[in-house]
Amino acid sequence: MDDFYEANAEWYGALTAAWQEPTNAAVRSLVGWIDGGTAVDIGSGVGYCLPVLRELGAERLYAVEPSRAMRTGLVATVARDPDLLARTTVVGAAVPEALDRLPGEWNAVVMLNAIGHLTDDGRTRLWTALDERLAPRGRFVVALQPPESATTIPWTDFGTVAIGDDRIRTRGRAEPLDRHRVEWTMEWTLQDRDGREREQRTAVHVWRALSVTDLADEAEAHGMARLETAGDGMFVGFGRLG
Question: Rounded to whole angstroms, how far apart are CA atoms 177 and 174?
């Protein structure tokens, strides 16, 4: 399997640093107090969400991350905190294959900016697992990425971040593949302090376009309901019906 994140994993922590505090605030709001038990972080990336899940009371943490390149940062995040290292199991597989390596009850599950990587079958199997394993008061929190439907997105500048003297610019575009999927082309350009280009990397991946309504309908079909939202509606919490 091609590793889309191999192109930007080296820079990922810097590229996402500005989003961390708002993301943490949304997770705190939607997950609430876990009070022991197990939290699962699907598409854990470099593991930024793990300390927040521990702060919310999770006793055991499972970080699901299929990208070998991203797991380098993930294990570095876990290893620098002895308590986090003792609590966290890293699962180097994608959903649905990762499901067999996770425990039988989940008190909280987060999946931030990753659900579009799943196939329709993989997403159905995840909902089935949630129906079977999510604790009665457990929460499933999803962060959605655009687009909500398969549409063309022209080259868009996603901003520039600084690492010392250097700057990394991110841009991307998307083209529909069919009624439900788009193909993203992402580009990262590394420049020095004088604006000279030092390196350019690109990556292409398929993304399943989903809306909050799509997920709410799927949740209901598996005995769950949409609850609160946060972060201008891009973070959505789900829990059991009733």
Answer: 9
- Cα–Cα distance list, 98 to 10, 76, 102 (Å): 24, 21, 7
Residue 1 has a pLDDT of 46
Contact 11, 80 (CB under 8 A): no
Query: 3-state SS of 7-18?
Result: HCHHHHHHHHHH
Alpha carbon distance 56, 27 (integer Å)? 10
76 confidence band (pLDDT: 50, 70, 90):
very high
Separation CA 231–CA 47 (nearest Å): 20
Report how far residue 87's alpha carbon sits from residue 80's, in angstroms, rounded to the nearest whole number: 13
Distance between CA atoms of 20 and 99, rounded to whole angstroms?
A: 27
CB atoms within 10 A of CB 105: 12
- The angle, 0 to 180 degrees and rounded to 10, between the axes of the packed helices 120-133 and 212-221 is 50
- pLDDT of 33 reads 95
From the list 223, 178, 182, the residue with the least C-alpha distance to 205 is 182
List the domains of the chain with CATH numbers: 9-144+211-240 (3.40.50.150), 153-208 (2.20.130)
Query: What single-letter amino acid sits at 170?
Result: T
Q: Which of 142, 197, 138 is nearest to 167 (CA)?
A: 197
Q: Which two tokens stand for residue 165?
A: 């003297």
Give the pair of three-digit tokens for residue 81.
Answer: 């905190």
CB atoms within 10 A of CB 163: 13
pLDDT at 241: 81
**What one-character DSSP code corresponds to residue 2?**
-
